[in-house]
Amino acid sequence: MSKPIRKILITGSNGFIGKNLAIRLNEMPSYSTLNFVRGDDVAQLPSLIAEADAVIHLAGENRPQDDSAFTKVNANLTALLCETIEHEINSTGRKVPLVFTSSTQADRDNPYGRSKLHAERSVRSLAERTGNPCAVFRLPGVFGKWCKPNYNSVVATFCHNIARGLPIEINDTSTILRLVYIDDVVDGLIEALDTPSGLIEGKISPEYTVTLGELASQLSAFNNCRTSLVSERVGTGLVRALYATYVSYLPNERFSYEIPQHGDARGVFVEMLKTHDSGQFSYFTAHPGITRGGHYHHTKTEKFLVIKGQARFRFRHLITDERIEFETSGTHPRIIDTIPGWTHDITNVGSEELIVMLWANENFDREKPDTVSSKV
Asked: Which residue, 195, 187, 75, is CA-closest to 132?
């Protein structure tokens, strides 16, 4: 028997966090979303609460034209939301879990910080009086796709400007930022929907620290990799999250880019991607009857994969003169390794163009290519 779908009311669902959260929840078969956005009448809250199984309260002001908006939206709207949930509990006996995103600035004596602290107190009071499940997340800087640049996120602003060749402004490169990534925030908020009862202090993990100078340097490196072809280490941690964020700010015309192609009578050779410490990827072509290679390496190793056509690989041991041959084609994926100390070549033995993908364990160095010509 399938579980009933939980309806989650998201206040501020058209904001940065709200957009990411709503899409994630709607991807999950056990959730659907209700929305309350800027400009909606607060008179709708009782009917929305009556329909919702839980609330994630994201709506807030952080850069209004008038400081009074801090109190109106951050403090008063949260208080009203808590009062509405308490009324639902008193009239139906049904508790409505509440997840609230506050800010690390809640402990600062400024209009924004005071308004967030006031909102936290409303949530805590609701939990204490009724036992309603509540979670309060004091978020540091959140970054990721769809965050508005030139607003309140330096990551978004730097990504937007660097991706467009615009200058960025840094007053102090040593300024330390505390950051959490949007996907981790969404994970944490959804997990908090299952708070059993009372109040929990939510925490998003991992939390990253980086200086402004380091942030600018890393984002600039992403921008430069299209000309150097050297990818940053984008597979894990902060660099992975920053890279996904950076490319989400690329203007449409930069979704694609050209790379150099080297051609001669045999075919073409194209380097696609290089890494700092795991080699490079490329591909080459060969016309029917053409042989490429005819060299050996002392340390460098390679992996070949025929994408299209039919190829014959030949190997000869430099010392023993032992010889080996393999044939492979694009219809039967098979990796061919080159081995240090063995001369190797590849011949197009088919009737169509041969296309071969190539990985080498090190980037090509023209000063020390480790490639010595020799007949097979």
From this structure: 195
Report d(CA 347, CA 332) in Å as an integer: 17
How confident is the model over 8-47, as pLDDT tens digits? Answer: 999 999 999 999 999 999 999 999 999 999 999 999 999 9
188 shares its domain with 57: yes
Which structural domain range is residue 331 located in? 262-373
Do 275 and 190 fall into the same domain?
no
- State yes or no: is 112 an active-site residue: yes
* 292 falls within a domain: yes
Place of tokens 């070549």: 345
Residue with tokens 């003169």: 321
- For the question of whether the overall pTM of this predicted structure is more than 0.85, the answer is yes
3-class secondary structure, 318: coil
Catalytic residue among 112, 181, 208, 246: 112
Dmax (CA) for the chain in angstroms is: 90
Do the beta carbons of residue 13 and residue 189 sit within 8 Å?
A: no
CA torsion 324-328-332-335 (nearest 10°) is 60
